[in-house]
Amino acid sequence: xxDCIFCxxxxxxxxxxxxxxDDRVIAIDDIDPKAPVHILIIPREHIASANELDDNNxxxxxxxxxxxxxLAKTKGIAQRGYRVINNCGVEGGQSVAHIHFHLMGGRxxxxxxx
Length: 114
What we know:
A five-stranded antiparallel β-sheet has the order 1-2-3-5-4, covered by helices on one side. The chain has one domain (5-105): HIT family, subunit A (2-Layer Sandwich), CATH 3.30.428. The chain has helices at 5-11, 59-74, and strands at 18-21, 25-29, 37-43, 82-85, 101-105. It is built from two helices and five strands; from the N terminus they run αβββαββ. The protein is of the alpha+beta class.
């Protein structure tokens, strides 16, 4: 997708603070962090939102959660706790039409989130 900012980051066209990558996802520091640890985990494949998940791409979600757990351990937040968030659609707070998950931790998280 040529106009997707996350596709441009995945392809290397836009620089980002890369904290993890493999053949299926990249993880970058959020440019506007809401917690001491705030990482975006983004699939390399363009999937617009959770609404676009199907039998052909559903395994990416479990992979993302495995990466989130690994990063939480690496960043020292696994034992105290962390949050993994996916925003879907405008009212759900999704601002980029490319599925991604926020890994947030390093402080107490409140509920409801907003």
